[in-house]
Amino acid sequence: MLTNPRADRVRSVAALSRRSARERAGLFVAEGPQSVREAVRFRPEAIRDLYVTAEAGERHTEIVDAATAAGVHVHECTPEVLAAMSDTDAPQGLLAVCRVLTSTLADVLARRPRLLVVLAHVRDPGNAGTVLRGADAAGADAVIVSEASVDVFSPKVVRSTAGSLFHVPVVTGLPVPQILAELAGAGITRLAADGAGTRLLPEVDLTRPHAWVMGNEAWGLPQPLREACDEVVRVPIFGHAESLNLAMAATVCLYASALAQHPAG
Amino acid sequence: MLTNPRADRVRSVAALSRRSARERAGLFVAEGPQSVREAVRFRPEAIRDLYVTAEAGERHTEIVDAATAAGVHVHECTPEVLAAMSDTDAPQGLLAVCRVLTSTLADVLARRPRLLVVLAHVRDPGNAGTVLRGADAAGADAVIVSEASVDVFSPKVVRSTAGSLFHVPVVTGLPVPQILAELAGAGITRLAADGAGTRLLPEVDLTRPHAWVMGNEAWGLPQPLREACDEVVRVPIFGHAESLNLAMAATVCLYASALAQHPAG
Hints:
alpha/beta, Alpha/beta knot, transferase (chains A, B), homodimer, CATH 3.30.1330.30, 2 domains, 39% helix, 4-stranded mixed sheet
């Protein structure tokens, strides 16, 4: 039973709210029942430690039992210890310290993916998390997050993925031109989603293997990157809105792809 | 030139960040170039006063010129006055005090709408704003926000609509059962969007006039309301995600409708 909120172990978990500490340790934190449940179900081998208060342990016995059965180190701690580790104002009594989960692009491509998303210089944690969740729902094979993007293992992104971070392979750290080149080499059509696009979404063949390339929330995709893609696709706007936001545009594109690739629904 | 941040006029604008003050005055605030531009373009008659700093007036001459041409009362003020009126930490030098813009359901139905959205007990301002923006982009004819929902004229909702609040008719304040009954009376199919749905989105006929009925972000649509709708429709989930969030689900449904109703894209 961990009772000292000032212990070194507690401080080192709290430090993982900073990107530099995450990168040094190769660890990140998933909090709350939904994220922890999905971590235990889908990636138990990635969980280094699971911290649980007595109250949360009673409320979520199925999560703790599944973690124990999967060989996860489960530690009981006081609410004060959990609060000291937590990034949120209202910690929910369950916190998993996980090894950073990334796949290589080579691994992703070796599995012959049909639907991918590339986030090029996406900076907002909520957008990145929402796109990851949408990619999961649409059955995407992986999400590729370019260098100079938000850290997908930051507490805000992890929270906003609602567990999808543990479902979908994530590739990080590569420059966009290299990503686009490797996708082309694997025969994957690169579709830039951009308001400047000349092709409209309903006109595009989405049955072939393809990747949606989404640009930064403020400035979109720079022209050289658009030109490096096979097609630049615009989500049609039927009303007076200037545009959709990044997460909505990505969701519309991903679902158009999913429905085209799974015609039976 | 307004220079006193403690003037009564300034305080009464600042007070509009509270729902009670908005309801008493029948006024709300739209801030920043994007919202103010769309207010001036689409609903200049609803703008009671436009406040502009000298710097913003120079940077956005086209907005100020259009406002003046439309007969809007434009007031120059100091940055201190604008900051005292503003709800944001980084005011952008343009602030419009607008008359609350609502339509009646009767007016909306008289225009023979083909695509509507009903927000039933939606509480989160970001979700409501994002759905409004998505409804605009998808060419929806109106957004109907039930009683006991977030106030769509709150600063956060106004901001997250990115101007769409001035494009799309909004109906507020009615109980959900009454909304559903009036839609049925007008021959509009009521489609509840819910994870408990038995029909899958791609199977539903979206060419007929219909309304998407979206429930609360936490508890969805209560069963009696689902049963009061004509069909309960589920967005298919192809991966391991439990669900889409409200704004994403609404966007996917609205775009499916828009693409079905505008087959040429």
